[in-house]
Amino acid sequence: MGEFDLIKQFFVRQQGQDGVVMGIGDDCAVLAPTPGMQWLVSTDMLVEGRHFLPTVAPERLGHKALAVNLSDLAACGATPRAFTLALALPRADASWLAGFSKGLFALADAHGIHLVGGDTTQGPLNIGITVMGEAPAGAALLRSGAKPGDDVYVSGSLGDARLALEVFRGSISLPGEQFAQVRAAMECPQPRVALGQALRGVASSAVDVSDGLIGDLGHILQRSAVGASLEVDLLPCSAVLATQSLALKRECGLAGGDDYELVFTAAPGQRAAVQQAAEQSATPVTRIGRIEAAAGLRLLDAEGQALAHQFSSFDHFKS
Ligand code: ADP
Ligand code: MG
Question: Within 6 Å (CB) of ligand 1, which residues are found?
């Protein structure tokens, strides 16, 4: 199977999708912007051994490669429109490609987003996706809008992906059914796209949790020039993580990574609106802390006592 047969067989679908003037097949894709909207663009790369284990099913990998990108659009409150796919493959393996494209397009279809181009080359397995979305001019959620007094919220639950990783590393073990659940959280994250859009005009800032809550909330604090206190034992966790020790729960919830939940801030006057956004998008949301003027992040336990912490979030170039 040659390069162009491969693209045609696994990645070209019907043309004439809305807003796509020219999709796959020319030197550029041509997209029509919706009047009054701004483009939001983001790229995320997945490298074998770094972002996923060789054991992951190709269908789940196709899902995850797009999911992590949609999560960035979600964090900005964007409506997904189109994406490109840069693929380095060790070989043209038809059954791998069939699984990968199945997972990829199932999620793409669920969000009404179209694959409009890409690049395909031979090499160590590496998947780069660029997503494009839209939001009304000036309405994108940014990291820079948090204000002292704002509430801090997180969607869904945190820490399951990290728990699964600990099982793969052999540091803990879980019963089969529990492992399947946390493994699905790690391999099949659900980007919070509907919540992000519902939070436009409600949240003052937002970020998605890819590298761990502390690190990603830290981006909001830095860009907004504020600090925060978090009530650590209020962090929402799954029934599986709830069975683990307090220390492991805190570690997974605060520093886990790969959660793809949204962390966002909103003025206390917006509590009802936040609740409404959560209901409208059928996404659970939990209030976990508050933004403060004093720089830095303070972690509090259930008694309001400060917690000493050395949790650090993931950094590719830190040893
Ligand atoms: P060029 O050489 O002009 O950059 P290519 O020959 O690499 O274009 O690709 C041919 C067409 O197929 C282009 O429209 C490109 O966007 C598309 N394409 C290549 N690889 C992929 C892929 N993995 N997924 C989707 N579209 C792809
Ligand atoms: Mg060209």
Answer: 7, 11, 24-27, 85, 87, 115, 117-120
